[in-house]
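Record format v2
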Amino acid sequence: MTSLLYLTRRVLQAVAVILVVTVVVFCLLHALPGGPARGILGPQATAQQIAEFNRAQGLDRPLPVQYLYYLRTLLHGDLGTSYTLNEPVSQLIAQRLPKTLVLTVLSAVVGLVIAVPLGMWQAVRRNKPVDYAVTALSFVAYATPVYFLGIILVLVFSQILPWFPPQAPQGDTVAQVLSDPAGLVLPVTAGAASMIAVFSRYMRAATLENLSEDYVRTARAGGTRQHAILWRHVFRNSLTPVIAMLGYYVPVLFGGALVVEQLFNYPGMGLLFWSAAQSSDYPVLLGCVLVISVATVVGTLLADIVQRIVDPRVKAGRS
Amino acid sequence: MSLARTAAGRRWALAAVVAVAAGTLLTGCAGGSGNSSSSESSDSVNYALPANFTPNWILPIGTAAHLNTNNISIAATLWEPLVAYDGSTGTIGWNKAASIASAADFAPDGKSVTITLGNRLWSDGTPITSRDVEFWFDLIKANKAQWANYNAGKAPDNWTGFKTIDAQHFTITFDKAYNPQWMLANELSMITPLPQHAWDRTSASAPVSDADRTPAGAQQVWNYLNTAAKNISAYATDPLWKTVSGPYTIDTYSTSGKVVLTANPKYDGGEKAGIKTVNLLPFTTTSAEENALRAGQVDYGYIDSTDLDQQSSFTNLGYTVKPWTGWAITYMPYNFNNPTMGPVFKQLYARQAIQTSIDQDSLAKVVFNGTAVPGYGPIPQAQSSDFLSPVQKSNPYPFSTTKAKALLAAHGWTEQNGIMVCTDPGSSATQCGAGVAQGTKFQMQVLSQSGSTVTDNMMSAIQSSLAESGIGLSIKTAPVNSVLSQTPQCTSGQSICTWQLSFFGTAGSWYFPAFPTGDSLFQSQGGSNFGSYSNPALDKLITASTTSNSTQAVQDYSAAAADDLPVIWLPEPDYQISVIRNGLGGFAQDSLADFHPAQWKWTK
């Protein structure tokens, strides 16, 4: 199978998956009793206002008609307008997504930059006291909820030791966010901790597996230095499972962003999704689900493509 | 496998250092500017908006989805109301300093009012005249169905005419005689003079005209203004929003929630801005806001009532903790049309047994940490007022599970396995009552607002005390919007009518305008009478309270509703536990839950 054909097939699969996700979410949302009007308008809204809201939002039409209308507007690039925030959903996502991406990408990069060498180092030091110590720390970090870790970080590094602000940068744009690096330290640390724990374990296991391979023994017998063996051969081969996992980690990163955003007062996509769920803001919920679905599908697709580049065996296997 | 310890170890150490350094660089560990104080200058103040609220509307007219109380507060700093009837001076009344009108003279027959405007100018130098009020009046008349404050039969339906006398005087006539205080506090206070000379156009490119004077034209103007108001990003730049009458103008209005107000240099009213720049800060959660308070980034914020035990940590940081009481009541509506429990709820003795089983004093003291006051009827009790009847004040149903149990036993109920069961059906005075079938268990379910520890604790405490009376209560929780959606007015045949009790009052169930009438809440046709309570005698008293000139009419309604228990009365929590930086003063916290930044001043 050519790369182009493979890619086309994967993209079509992705579109189908996203379509199914929108149908399921749309049906689930509209299955909620009562509808969103009373919740959005509040206890003081009159019956006329509720009827007017339902008419204006098209909620008085049959469900299949509503869905088809939603799909039609979606195809025109219109995700609808938020019931509560009073702005087009696409605009809200355009405002919030870059902020969440800054947080998640920085957390992921910091996490990987630390986790990959750490995992390799542990593998090299296998069953030594340092390996045990790092393993124990990894388990602790993995088992610690992000929310709790965040509170501890704020308590220690913002209140007891006033080194960093308790809030993430409050700017609206990526440039404004990046212009306040001190504000990013605690949220990125909280976001990266569990990633370090998870990916250092993967990297350790993959490195150990590769170190026992014949090609390593051959290289070593040929006099290749340990450093060269590790970085030229073992490193690349050990990355395969890490890359595969990265794609599947996208929704986890978004989930983690929700907690981090709440804790560090950083209104991004996670918080947008949470607030919309709390207020039955259907257009925003659907928009967020769509974006997260696309991100997950694209993430796994990219992971597959990168895997094919990094590890020729994958390509051969799929051919 | 082994590594040469020295060289390889150094390389690993180097790799680790590089990794950490890269991480540090990426996260920009550039400096520890963590605890910057907010009010470094007396020209600015940082105010924390409620958690998870994003300001998104400044037009002082709009649909119900837009007019949140905080949006209204911001809008009122830009366009002053005709009659500012609020609690900003410490007691609820007409704050003339913050009003465009200087006098309101009601006709002796109570069927009209003549308003005198103060000698005021818009920020562009144009005089504020009767035409600006007429403009508002025309827009609302022609678009009442979309207007957030519209309630059929009330304003503008009951305003039959608007007559301009001259530039500073006009008369509004009513369909019948009304209590002037009610009319002033609850209806005329909704009017905001709008800059007709700048806003009366049907599109951005259309010239200013008298378009509002025809219904079709007024609808076009309404659509134009509401459409323009949806462009939040342009609030600070669109010339449309630059013509104001209030003490502030918009400096920045971020879509992520931060709003910066700056003093209006042309303001000529009585409530000039005390602080030049007001930063309204959004917060995702109360915890995030508390962290910012502790870091000194907020001058006027709040804490959860569960954090009151940490009061000293805030006072040590130079703050004063000050509860902000609301002009509100808190309650749990019964669904009188529920097929199972509706017939039970319709029995006054059953409602009395339930109310008697709720220990409001303990709830207020223990669960609310002293940040709530018991409420025994439809008039708020956190503030003293002439509206409160002695009956309501004295608590007609003091806590006693023994009495509650005896009351049920005297009406044909027998305790079986800890739950009262109707064993003597029928409608005589000693039987269960009309519609209550034999074997009916006194077992209720409440759909309660989630997300609050205080509410969860209150529900558990109520469940325990009801159990002592032989009344079962199961608790389901959902987000407040979901609670409101799932507990609507309904008839017994509807599938949605399975709800029995509803609670959406973590921050108070109902905030009143200045005059606390019960027409929406407890009148048979009231739009927010969720449980379909109906009592013709109370209907008459409510109507009388809006038309009679005497406060006795409101007291009569207060006493009757306290006696008849249309809902379960519950403690009224404070609107907010404010944490205010020492030195920030000059204001009272408005019990109508609005904030008035023009009154804030740095006193040291």
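Chain A has 15 helices and no strands.
The first helix of chain A runs from residue 3 to 31.
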